[in-house]
Amino acid sequence: QQEKEDLEGKLKLREHLSQTAGKSEATPVPSKNIDLEMKQLQCKLKNSNNEITKQLTTIKSLKNEVQEKEERIRELQAKISRLERDLNMKRHLIEDLRSRLKANQENEKTSNETLESLERKVKALSEVCSNKKTSIDSLKQRLDVTTKEKSHYEQIYHKAKEELEKKDLKLINLESKMIETEYAMTEIESTASQQLHALAKQSEQALETVQKKLLLTSAKVEEFITFVKALTRELQHSVQELRTKIKQAKKMEEVRTRKKSLSQESVQLAASILNVSTTDLEEILEVEDDAETAKTKMEFEKDKEWLQYIQKLLEAQFPFASYLMDAILEKLNEKKKLVEEYSCLTKHTV
């Protein structure tokens, strides 16, 4: 986004430069090349915007897919934990039933032994112990109850065995599903890493191209700054030359007027009085006054301030083209006035 803003600022600067260059007649600029560069930069901007939007959409879709897969994994893990808890509960129940069954079997064995011993005692003491029939009946009833309990426990044992077999089948199915989900997760991770690697390569290539373009644009800006500095120096030098030429022409005009006003005899007389030659006398007459020296110093200071102002404009932030154009036009107008003044002076001397 920052590179995009920089490119847009440069486009605006180029548009402004092309508009101001079309207005000024003194420095013509090739507008066709500028238009072509502007169109190229606009096309590059559009392409970079399209690439950025594509990358953002792909990243969002990948993030959504990863979130969905993570939610699916969490649901499966929760189901597995619930099934493991149920399985542990049922295992504890089966162990409890087995312990009860063992206890009942031991009771049955003891009851069978007591029953056999009682039958033998009944056979031996049938004649003597007729009164024990009631106790034998009660024992038979107890035996019936124990046999019923035994059959009942056997049914429970078979049911528990069937349920255990069903749970084992479910556990096998769950393990196969877990293996399938792990394999799918590894495939998803590999594809995601490949896509991220490709995206990273594309972003690195785009960054390299943008860096090259930035280097080219910075080189162009440096060339433009050197051109502006050279142009301002040349303008200031030409203005100074014109000023010196105007001063020399004015001096020549003054000398001529003085020579016209003074005759040759008076000049020789003044030279003989001062004990100097006629040429030295002319040089003495050509000496500048204090007002002229102050004026030259002021003009020199103005030129110095103007060059410093141009330097500040070039070091300032965008936009500064209008201020730069105004400063150069001001110096050009000054040069134009000096040229007109010099041409007037040369005409008078001719």
From TrEMBL:
Compositionally biased residues, Basic and acidic residues: 1-17
InterPro entries hit by this protein: CNTLN
Region (Disordered) residue spans: 1-33
Annotated GO biological process: centriole-centriole cohesion
Gene Ontology, cellular component aspect: centriole; centrosome
Lineage: superkingdom: Eukaryota
Name of the featured protein: CNTLN protein
Native organism taxonomy: Eukaryota, Metazoa, Chordata, Craniata, Vertebrata
